[in-house]
Known about the structure:
Blueprint: E1 9-11, H1 16-19, H2 22-27, E2 32-35, H3 39-47, E3 62-65, E4 69-71, E5 78-82, E6 92-96, E7 101-103, H4 111-114, H5 118-132, E8 138-141, E9 144-148, H6 149-153
Parallel strand pairs: 1-2, 2-3, 7-8
Antiparallel strand pairs: 4-5, 5-6, 6-7, 8-9
Amino acid sequence: MCSSPITGIVSTNQLQFHLAGLPAYAKEHIPIYVVDANVDLVRRFLTAQDDEAAIHDREVKLRTVWDRTEIGIGLNRMVLIPFRGTTSARMMAVYFPEHKLLYCSDMYLPQSWGRASWTEHLSEIRDLIDREHIDVQQVLGVSMIPHDWKELSALIPAAPTDS
């Protein structure tokens, strides 16, 4: 049983099955952090609920994440970071600085799911880490346990060089 109240929800991507639980939090007026590219989609999703679960626009407390946004303090501090990559344009990472842990949403999935795009996803994670100058030891994803970032980054093919 959770003894602390829920003070916010972070929605890290646009996939409808990831949005499914948001109406319950919106009805309780709990702030929902959403990357800027998904705000309209999430608002439409929340206000399109049927009569029994109807949510009025005034009840929705969306917090738009345009760029790096810090939430919380101490060991629970999180930094929300939009990916802004080719395949991750509508996704957001969550960095836990005190743990050097990066949650990558659906950008880090089992290799068998990602197939050809798996290393592209890893390179977009690398690009975010480099762009934001964050110290990451482990990454995890929606369907992946934490994994050593150095090991994963070694699997990214080298960029072709111009001859």
